[in-house]
User: Fold this.
Amino acid sequence: MTQMNLASSMLLVTGLATIFTTFAQCGPAKATTNAQDPQHTKNVGEQDPVQPPPDAIRILISGLMLGRLEPCGCASGQLGGLARRMQHIGEQRNYDLLLEGGNIVSGSSELDKQKLFTAAQILFTMERSYDAVGVGLHDLELPLADWSDFLLGGPAVASNLTSTAEAWPAKPFQEKIIRDKTVRIASLLMSELPEALRSEKSHVMRTDPVIAWTGVFEGQADTMMRIAMVHGTDVQIRGIIPKLTPRPDLVIGVDPGYIEPDGAAALVAGVPLVFTGIRGRVVLDARLWRDGDTSRVACETVPLAGSQTIPGGGGDPNVKEVIMMHRMNVAESNVLALMAEQKPTPNGDSYVGTTQCTICHPTAAKAWGASKHAHAWQTLVDAEADPKRYGWPVTKYPDCVGCHVIGYGEQSGFKTYEDTPSLANVGCERCHGPGSGHMISGGKKKMGIIGGVLKSEMCAQCHDFEQSPDFLYTDRWKLIEHGLEPK
Ligand code: HEC
Ligand code: HEC
Ligand code: HEC
Ligand code: HEC
Assistant:
């Protein structure tokens, strides 16, 4: 997509957002009273449940979207999606702060770029705009020019990152006054910068998170509420909390290893700690207040159920429109072709296509032909043609294609159905790896499992906890069982 296109679609969306602000279905976010709501008193760390006072600060927290604008819809009951999230937020009338931990996308591909652009429109320019978004390692992977273009003017915060670049979009903190209380939000990155950003020429520098935190609150009254979003592992996050002075009122852990947050805050050195979870599947609804010197948090998780990519599925219609525009842009600018054949194959050999294997492995080929893997491409074609299911160009969307074909993104791998029909579907080489060497050697060069990983791990590259929630290798293998030719 050209810069022109980006600019004009940004205008269009801003225009849409304005229109829908005028005809807002839900009242504007009022940072006034907080009605007491017994639903929100589930837990307070180690203390017994305590009713939050009416003036507690209500914070809606999400994070680690990792490129998941919407669930793929491969299984029923998937959670999350921006359309559903923004609908939920729109239904809330009395929240005070909207926080996004960061790592909105998880790579630096052309698709990631377009996803970040789309997410930034939804999170920062539409009716309900986020107050702060942290900066994680993945966010730094995209070239600064793209990243800063999309986030400039957005509420990016990175307290222990400094940059010499003029277009650096992040501030050391974000701040909001809520019922006479000032709340300041910092974001700390625990890990070292990626290799590429550690050179002399790099525009970005990482400083000590403990010192950066102290700097954010230097000279500020103790009445200021202090929130830290911390990017790191569970151990890193718990480790830094006791070292932070002044003491945070709330720490939000942005940890990709913490898949599903509980509706409970942990207490670390007296500081309430919550996690965002991953892929934007839930929103954390937290109330924060001080009880004398003690910071308290009551929270619950809101699973974003009912989100579907299908027409008529749940979600904010304006957000759905923006996401649909993104999908159309991805198809029109042929991102699928741009991202094909970018990296070498795992064993250096080339993909030859499923039909080549059939010659020497007729029995395995027969079993495969009867399995659903042999229809994975047709499934996408059907989904695309069926307006009741998807009705948008899923065969041109790299995420969908990647799990339904052989070797997409790798040299000699799937490009388009027209170019590489024998690499469509989850064919032999998706599981056994590229077969040119094996074929030429008449079967002497071993195939094994692609990348040398465990069989069950290989299945889980696609059958993950969302696509196949109750996947058990031993059960599912029986449904695709095959092997050597009978002697
Ligand atoms: C490249 C991604 C990918 C990998 C790797 C993969 N699958 Fe699948 N699998 C799919 C897709 C896509 C479908 C659905 C195809 C359709 O319905 O069109 C599927 C469907 C299935 C089905 C039929 C539906 C069901 O669950 O009853 C079984 C069984 C299955 N896979 C087992 C496995 C096993 C066992 C492994 C590992 C040995 C594996 N798959 C590895 C993508 C994958
Ligand atoms: C991470 C890999 C992955 C991605 C990404 C993915 N799929 Fe799938 N898809 C699967 C697997 C695995 C299955 C089989 C699930 C099962 O039955 O256990 C499947 C099944 C399906 C099915 C059949 C479901 C049914 O009810 O029969 C459809 C349709 C589908 N996928 C469409 C899509 C579309 C459209 C996208 C992109 C929006 C997509 N997939 C992205 C892995 C993936
Ligand atoms: C979804 C992944 C997947 C697909 C697709 C697949 N296989 Fe396999 N295949 C496996 C796994 C996993 C095993 C190992 C099973 C075991 O050892 O228990 C296996 C085993 C085999 C074996 C026997 C290996 C041995 O040493 O005993 C042969 C031969 C084979 N596959 C050939 C093929 C051919 C040919 C195709 C395509 C027509 C194919 N496979 C498609 C996953 C797959
Ligand atoms: C020219 C014939 C030929 C072709 C083509 C061929 N194979 Fe084989 N393959 C063999 C022979 C021979 C063996 C060893 C069989 C035996 O020991 O019974 C073998 C063994 C295997 C095995 C089990 C041992 C191992 O290396 O892991 C797998 C898996 C396998 N082939 C997959 C494939 C796949 C996938 C393709 C297509 C890319 C393919 N083969 C194409 C001849 C072939």
Remarks:
- The pocket of heme C (ligand 4) is lined by residues 352, 356-357, 359-361, 428-429, 432, 435, 438-439, 442-443, 446-448, 484 (CB under 6 Å).
- The two ends are 55 Å apart (CA to CA).
- The CA atoms of residues 475 and 481 lie 10 Å apart.
- Confidence is low (pLDDT under 50) at residues 1-48.
